[in-house]
């Protein structure tokens, strides 16, 4: 179950590495993930929300019994 969000994490990092926040501004990934500015594409914002929901599902006891929905 700990690896069920790994695919989403790699997609999010790949999307962020192609964004203006990392490329042009040279900021770290951690700062870029928490933003809602136009320097991040809507695809990255969607991946971020999906990744956070996946990580939240790992903590939820009902989801732990049923298993997290993997990527």
UniProtKB/TrEMBL annotation:
What Pfam families has UniProt attached to this entry?
Answer: Pet191_N
Q: Check the record and name the InterPro entries matching this protein.
A: Cyt_c_oxidase_assmbl_Pet191
Keywords assigned: Disulfide bond
PANTHER family, alphabetized: CYTOCHROME C OXIDASE ASSEMBLY FACTOR 5
UniProt lists the family membership as follows: Belongs to the PET191 family.
Full protein name? Cytochrome c oxidase assembly factor 5
Its source organism is Stylosanthes scabra
Which taxonomic lineage does the organism of this UniProt entry have?
Eukaryota, Viridiplantae, Streptophyta, Embryophyta, Tracheophyta
């Amino acid at each position: 179950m700990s690896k069920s969000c790994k695919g989403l994490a790699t997609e999010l990092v790949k999307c962020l590495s192609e964004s203006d926040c990392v490329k042009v501004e040279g900021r770290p990934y951690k700062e870029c993930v928490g933003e809602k500015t136009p320097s991040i594409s809507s695809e990255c914002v969607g991946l971020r929300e999906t990744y956070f929901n996946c990580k939240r599902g790992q903590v939820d006891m009902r989801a732990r019994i049923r298993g997290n929905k993997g990527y």
